[in-house]
Write a structure and sequence with these properties.
Shape: extended
Radius of gyration: 22 Å
Structural class: mainly alpha
Number of strands: 0
Helix content: 55-70%
Oligomer: single chain
Distance between the termini: 28 Å
């Protein structure tokens, strides 16, 4: 959309809770350089007991952040704001306010949300149809389904806009 975006996110908390200290460090260090303490550990230096304790404390913080929607949104919005301000040649606040989120408690809610997100560009008149809605996951999913259909010599049937709208309304009423 021209002034906002939609995401459907899933956090696999049990899986994240099972990460070892090294897995957390590896994941964190792919995103951030990390403090000197982490750099020294990764270089193979022997750390003191106090330094190891401090690193364990940091790993706990990083693990929480790696599974936090708020942290994810902070990082994503920061990068988008930097890029947009650079393109516009300005500084200052880019986003009007904090992001909004809605927990999706079951598959029905998830499907209804995904239908809403997928149809948003069509409803707003930005795209004529789902395959034509740029920068959306539905466009990618349609392309992938077509590629898979060609491989299997059978093209999957895609729902029409009216069918999706009807299913969306019916799902919302459940």
């Amino acid at each position: 959309m021209s002034n906002h975006y939609h995401l459907v996110l899933h956090i696999d908390k049990p899986k994240a809770d099972s990460w070892t200290e090294q897995e957390v460090i590896t994941r964190w260090s792919t995103l951030y350089r990390g403090p000197e303490l982490l750099q020294r550990r990764m270089a193979g230096e022997v750390l003191t007991e106090y330094e190891l304790h401090e690193l364990r404390r940091l790993v706990e913080v990083w693990q929480c952040r790696l599974t936090s929607i708020s942290w994810f949104m902070y990082c994503l919005n920061f990068v988008i704001a930097l890029q947009a301000n650079k393109e516009d040649g300005c500084t200052g606040r880019f986003w009007e306010g904090r992001f909004k989120s809605q927990a999706l408690k079951d598959e029905t809610a998830l499907i209804a949300c995904m239908v809403y997100v997928d149809l948003n560009p069509v409803r707003a008149g930005i795209a004529q149809d789902l395959p034509g809605s740029e920068y959306t996951s539905i466009r990618d999913r349609i392309r992938q389904a077509k590629r898979q259909g060609k491989r299997s010599k059978r093209s999957p049937r895609l729902l029409t806009f009216g069918e999706v709208e009807t299913q969306s309304r019916n799902t919302a009423l459940l």
